[in-house]
Structures are given as structure tokens and as C-alpha cells.
Amino acid sequence: MSERVTLVMEPREKSSKGENRRLRKAGWTPCVFYGPEVAEPVLGKIASKSLERLLAGGRWEAMRLTVKLPSGAEEMCIVREAQRDPLTDKPVHIDFLRLLQGRKISVKVPVTVHGREASPGLKDGGVLESVHELEIESLPMNIPESIVVDVSELKLGESLHVRDLSLGEDVTLLAEPDEVVAIIVVPRGVEETTVEEEPAEVEVVAKGKAAKSEEEQGN
């Protein structure tokens, strides 16, 4: 595991659309901290630049963080939700969920695909389709940074399912066992070309028969 990132939450007393817009213009992102054994959600703000660096790095969904609350207390947490501006992709609001050692949590973990170069199906011109994330249940200290899916032995038309993955005894996948995680498919363009060519051949044969019939009638 990489070194845990620490974010500093400053106090935020008001919670209104106008106040939140003012904070964003001033370089802050409104946030809230909540979770197990937290009596009242803690409102706060965090420097937008630090959040942008975190979110730009990827794999933040399952990353354990340390947040320093306005009270000075430091808590382990994850980003439960990151709301972003649809035009700029910059964070507009962040939800932090508290993590407690010894208490399991459900979290979505990104999927990393290995073995593309060796896959027989990809060598034969197939296209890989795979999920981007999977939901797991785990203790905070056992949350994996990513779920590795090995496609090195997949042939054209073959697939891997949730039941084929192994993440250890302390990590449980919450998806259905039969859910497809990765599959090698025939490119759609190839299928469409094959379907389109068949009527063309029939049409040529039909025209040939029609022409021959006209010649016979003329004779």
C-alpha cells in the first residue's frame, strides 16, 4: 500500500447554495464527514487544489485517507462520493465516510486488467470488454487498491466471471458469481461486414439469372 494521504478540513458553519458558490470561487470545496459512531455530520471545506490532485491520480474510490477535522482530531476515511462540475470536472462537493478498524465496509474498487499481450483472443483480432470496478466488502485495512483480472489465457469468445476471481479470505465480492468481468468478443465491424456481404452475393446471382432469362426469351 502507498503512503496514506492526509487532507485538512477547515470549519464551515453555513450550508447553502450561495455560500458554497462563494467558497468555490475562493478556492475551497465544501465537504462533509460522517460515518459509524459519528453523532452529527461534520461540515467543512478543503482546499480545492489538494482534492484535484487526489482525484486526478485515479483509484481514489478505494483509497484510505486521513482527514484532519476542524476539531484537530485525525480520522481514517474514504471518499464516499465526489460530485464534480460536468463542464470543468472540478470537485464541487466531497463526502468522507469514517472507517473503523475491525468494522467491515462495502466499497467499489477499480479493476486492473493484466495479460493483454499474451491473450490468444486479442492476438486473433478480438476486442476486450471488461468492467471498470467491482464492489467488495472488507475490513478497512484489507481494502485492495485494485482488483487484478488476468486475461492472458482468454481465447476468442471466452470470458472470466466473478466466481473466477480470488481476493483472499477477508475480502468478499458482492457481485453475482455469474457476472461477467472480462470477455474477448469478435469486433462488431467484422460481424457487420459479414452480414452485409451475403445479400450482395445473392443479388449478383439473381441478376445473372434474370439476364440469362431475358436472352432465352429474346431467342
Brief sketch in words of this structure:
The protein has 219 residues and is α+β, with helices and mostly antiparallel strands. It has four helices and 14 strands. Helix content is 24%, strand content 36%.
How do the strands line up in the largest sheet? 1-5-6-7-3-4-2
Number of E-type strands: 14
Number of domains: 2
Biggest sheet details = 7 strands, mixed
Structural class: alpha+beta
Percent of residues in helical segments? 10-25%
How far is it from the N-terminal to the C-terminal residue, by CA? 87 Å
Q: Find the CATH topology of the largest domain.
A: Ribosomal Protein L25, Chain P
Oligomer: single chain
- CATH homologous superfamily heading of the largest domain: Ribosomal Protein L25, Chain P
Structure description:
With 219 residues, the chain is an alpha+beta fold. It folds into two domains: 5-100, Ribosomal Protein L25, Chain P; 106-186, Beta Complex (RNA Polymerase Alpha Subunit, Chain A, domain 2), CATH 2.170.120.20. It has four helices and 14 strands. The chain has helices at residues 17-25, 48-56, 120-123, 188-218; strands spanning 5-8, 10-11, 28-34, 42-47, 65-68, 74-84, 91-98, 105-114, 127-130, 133-138, 147-150, 159-161, 171-173, 180-185. It has a seven-stranded mixed β-sheet. It has a four-stranded mixed β-sheet with strand order 11-8-10-13, with no helix packed on it. A hairpin with a 7-residue loop joins strand 3 and strand 4. It starts with a strand and ends with a helix. The model is unreliable at 192-197 (pLDDT under 50).
